[in-house]
Write a structure and sequence with these properties.
Elements (H helix, E strand, L loop, with lengths): L1 H5 L3 H7 L3 H16 L10 H12 L7 H23 L6 H58 L25 H4 L3 H23 L7 H24 L4 H24 L6 H31 L3 H17 L1
Amino acid sequence: MVTKVARLPPPLAQALGWTNRQIATELFMSAFLYSLPACRPERANSSLRCWGQHVRSWPTGYGTDVVRALIFGVVASSALVIGALVGGRVSLPKRLLAAMLAFASGALITALAFELFEDSYEKGGIWRAAAGLFVGAAVFTLISQRLDRLAEGHRPSDPGSEKLDVDAATSDTTPNPASTTGAAGLALLAAVTLDGVPENLALGISLSEEAGGLALLVAIFVSNFPEALVGSASMKTQGRSQRFILVTWCLCAVLLTIAVVLGSVFLSTVSDTVVSLPLAFAAGAVLASLADTLMPEAYEQGGPTVALSTTAGFVVSFVLSTL
């Protein structure tokens, strides 16, 4: 099915009303659906018929906004569940995890600039966009500092974000006190939820536009995975059971999926001046999380070479935003 879409002749694509971005998004979504056992051709049941309807209905709007938003929300939030499963069982090299955080940072930079703040500026003007940006950054920073204090252990730890204890998920370092005697894992879960709600609301809003939110979808996915991996590793260090870890991150994934649906169904229908505020707020929250948590931790763990991973993430996300 993916091959047929990739070889679609240009005249036919134009006749169907397909854009390059829609074709790229279709390839991404088809690959995800094909990875699900229930959607593979050898299981010729109702799931396969649903797949066929998925491919044929994209040019006409993917059936309903709710179904489309639900699919995008599941894809974006599935990284939280995958990261929780991996983090509870596997320890990664420190530099590899740092490179993942840096790559996610680069992808988020593109997404917040071209998918969030630019759209906010076009819909509400510079003053409304700038105000929402500062409010989002301020709210995230204040709550993030509070979460860092809650995550502190019984002994003083190294400078940096207490809640994102990368050492707990790596094979060549020992966990910080924030994980062994503090509450780093739960604090990171709260931070991911705080940052993720406006991000996923913005993702739902973007589905009603021609851009389709592909770059934002990928940026959310690649940032969710390492954060959930580190958070679950911290919870494991604290003695939490694998069941508790998986359930808490699954609940977070469900909440963020609902945020995508709410953004697509409700916020996408309101006036542009109103929509510009949550878009700018999300951009501010993302920017603050980059400066406050992701980029400092990536540099501390990986050194100057993380600049290359950040550049790669930026380029990949930018290419997706221009399709």
